[in-house]
Every structure is written in structure tokens, then in C-alpha cells.
Amino acid sequence: MESDISQAFQEELICFICLSCLTEPVTISCGHSFCRACLQLSWEDPQLPVHCPMCREPCQQKEMRTNIVLKKLVSIVRQASLMKDLSSEEHKCVSHKETKRIFCVEGRIILCQLCSNSHEHRGHKHCPLEAAAEDEMERILKQMASLWEKIQENQENIEAENRTTTLWMDYVTLREEMIRTEYRELHPFLCKEEKKHIQCMRKESQYVLEKLRKSEARMVQKSKELRDMFQELMAMSQEPYVVLLQGLDDMVRRSESMQLSMPKGMQPELSALPITGLTKMLRQIQVHIFFDKITTFHYKMNLFNVLRKFSFGPHLKDTSEDSVGCYLASWESLKFISMKYYWEVDLQESGDWAVGVCEDSWLRNTNQIIDSEDAFLLVCVKEGNHCSLLTTCPLFRHYIERPLGRVGVLLDREDGCLSFINVAKSSLMYKYPAGTFKNPVQPFFSSGHEGKTFNPGH
């Protein structure tokens, strides 16, 4: 009768997925329990709802709660199994014929009482076998949790690199068409220069595309390595305590080493190739702008932080200083209504900056929506050693070399378009299509830093 109860009791501690004794049991909304690792693998599909592997009831959230009672019961069963294993002749001390109940931490070996007091082990740290087994189980679970985070991080990087590859190809196509149009408007007879420009851009873009594909392939290979390691740790976590106590060190070292070198996504960019005579021609219609309105904006969100997350990923966290929309901005009170205007803005080594034109309504709006239709800006955001260039209205990322020194702005009120020029390279960065805006606009600049006073128009 007692053996039947014991058998039924142990059967309730079996995971439906792996058919082994539960490891770090978690319970989901329907009431069923599984190993945490088993459920993580089962629920890896990002689509919701997920379903209970046992009863197929849908779950709207991937919520797993550690079942403390089940965890304690599993520990009791494992401890009992450990004592049973150690009572066999196989695990008795050969020298002293005593049961081994002490674990030598330095030697990673199970000892009897007399061996633990021997000259060889006397100076080592020892602990009861039961406590050592629980410590090793926590150690492997901690390692699995860390490894799972890396698996998810790497998967996000694979998806991001795949998106970047698609965006890169689309961007190159768009830029090629933009350069062709610019050459035909400015230099309709310089066909050879136009052709050479396009060929250089295509060659560079193809080289970058190959690097992007190789980068994604490395991430896919890393994913396989991480998952194999995770499966190995899973298998070890289901072994009896007596095996866990003696076979974990090498596995943990390999897992930790594997997590140190994670492949990172690329930040691709095209070189800023010059268009013959572009800067020289534009300076013939240059106007000198004095940004006479200088203030620190205190808005509900930070323009640069929002675009930083858009460029480099949502995992970036706001700091207490950057979470609000506090940054230096300046603008020219003169409103441009007609004709063409060209001016240059000195970036003065700013990390984050925004330059362009905007309407009065955008300056007065404390919400400052990024994709509103009254601000046409070229924005640079910096994260670590990487920078990203974007234009607003609509929000669009540009894979082009960041300008150093001065940015030129060409406003054509007659056609309702706006161009941004890399002055040092005499290169067109972006041109808004004709008819982009109709209302009066005024020059705008922001450095992204509070307390720095300068006039970028000088």
C-alpha cells in the first residue's frame, strides 16, 4: 500500500514535456506544472496566445510562476534518491567502508568522515552532501537562466540583422534614384560622372550586403551553439544528485565562456560620395542665419531618446536626466515664405543634434510628436561609438556616413522641398520630394544638451 502511494506521489512530479522529474517547476494559468526550461522551449514562438502543452488551454500571457510547494517536494524526492544511491556498496569508501556523506568543494569529490579529516583534504572546505547537492542544483539553474537570456538576446539580434539587410537594400535603391535625379537636375551633361558615382555606390553596397549576410550567419551558428549548451545543461539538471555533484564544473565553464563572445549587429553605412560642384554652387545662394531664439525645451518626452530607441533598439533605458524632453534648441525668427534659401550649420562636435525647418505649431506643442507633419529635420543620435542619422516626416533611417563639421540646408519654397548636404564631402545626404510642405517654416537646430550656449549659424 505504501509503495503504491509512493509510486503515485512520484508520478505527480513528472514533467509532461520531458517525462523526467520536474526541474524548477512552474505553474501556468490553467493549473498545470512543467519544468521552467521545458516550458520556455515549448513557448518560444512569439505569437500569442500560447497553449498549455498538456490540456491545450490558451494562455494570453507567457506567465510562469515558480511552484514553491512542488519545488520542495521535488527536493525531498531527490534527497531521498541521493541517500539511497549512497547507501549502495558502489558508493562506500573503499578504504574505510563508510558511507560517503561529505562533499569536498575544492576537490569536487564525495568523501567519508575519515577521508575528510585526512592530510589530503583536511584544509579544504567541506559541507554536508545534501546541502552541496542543493547548491549545485541552484548553480546549474542560474547558469541555465543566464544562457536562456543570451539565447533570446541572440534571437533578437538575428531578427534585427535580417530587418537591417532588407532596409539596407531598400535604402540603396532609394539613394540611387535620388542621386540620379540630382545629377540630372544639376548636371544633365555629366553622364560619365553620374555613372561612376552609381557604380561606386553599388560596389560598396554589395560589399556591405555580403558582410550583413555573414554577420547573420554567425548569429545563426551562435544560436545553435547556445541551444546545444542549454540542452546539455537541461539534461544534467535531470540527472541524480550524485552525478550532478561530480560532473558540473567543466559544463559551467564552457557555458560561461560561450556567453562572453556574443556576435553584435552591424551598423552599415555608405560613404558620402561627392557630387561635382554641389557645395560651390549652393554657396552662391547662401544666406547667413542667426539663430536668435535660444532656449531649453522641457517637453514630455526627449526627441533624441525616442529616436535613439528607434535606431538602436527598445532595450535602451532612459536615465533620470534624459527621460524628460530637456534639451537646448535654437531657431531663426525669420519665416521663409518663397524662393530658395541655403544656409550652413556648424555642428561643433555635438553627439546628438537635429537640424532642419519647422512650423510654429511644432515649437509650441509640448508633446512634440516625432512623426508630426510640421517638422522636417535631419537628426543624429549617438549610442556608444555608433551614430544613426534619421529624417522626420516621415521617420526614416539613413545608412550614410555621418557629416563632420557643417551641414548645409537647402530650402526650396517654390517646389516645397528640402535638402541636407554634407558640406565637407560636397555630398547630398537626403532630399525631401517636391510638395513636401506648403506652410511657412523657419530654421531649427538643437544640440541635445542643456546648458550649452552657442550660435550654430556662425
From TrEMBL:
Domain B box-type: 88-129
Record-linked InterPro entries: B30.2/SPRY, B30.2/SPRY_sf, Butyrophylin_SPRY, ConA-like_dom_sf, SPRY_dom, TRIM/RBCC, Znf_B-box, Znf_RING
GO MF annotations in UniProt: zinc ion binding
The keyword NAD appears for this protein: no
Domain (RING-type): residue spans on this chain: 15-56
The organism's place on the tree of life at top rank: Eukaryota
Keyword set includes Zinc-finger: yes
Xref: SUPFAM superfamilies: B-box zinc-binding domain, Concanavalin A-like lectins/glucanases, RING/U-box
Residue ranges of every copy of the B30.2/SPRY domain listed in the record: 269-458
Name of a matching Pfam family: zf-C3HC4_4
Keywords: Metal-binding, Zinc, Zinc-finger
Name of this protein: Tripartite motif-containing protein 43-like
Organism: Peromyscus maniculatus bairdii
